[in-house]
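Example 3.2
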Amino acid sequence: MSKFSLFTLFLSATIIVIVAELIVNEYVPSQLSANVMQPSAPGTQADSQAGATQDAPGESAITYAALTQAGFKNFSLQRVPFNGILFESIDLRDFKSVKVTVNNLLENNRKRVATFYEFQAESGILAKEVYQYLREKCGKLIGASLNETGSFRESSFYVNYIERTDTAFLVVNAGENVYALTYLKDLHSFVSNLISQIT
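Structure, written as tokens:
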């Protein structure tokens, strides 16, 4: 094979890699951001449409409208699939009892400042069982302690990680659902308002 052919082959491979990088790093995020609910003033058409979509039966109770009422500003809500790992450390990949909905809270549509996991038990009895299951799993963590304060709704506890002190990890049994919320501690008052609203 001539040097020119080798050069052409190398150049073609380089172009393919560059195009692949552009597709992954530019095209994919733009498509994801198209699915993110954009911030709008309460009462606008965009806000009412977002609420209608989120409030459909079987959908998440944590909606754009609920977050706005709780006082969150300059944010967007991004639905992501549940990968089976709670709080980036608790393996729930074998957990199939109820549907789990996950929403990321993005500040200025960029920085993730919170993640909300919603375990949709659809009955108070099953919700209590899910809560106890999560409590047992969290209680076995190494490098973390469990603090059951009962400060929210029927029952609640915090997971306190030794090395993750700037972030709160909270599990709440609320009616027919269980919520696991991880958020920057600066957002605590807003999260408290949110928990008082969701059902």
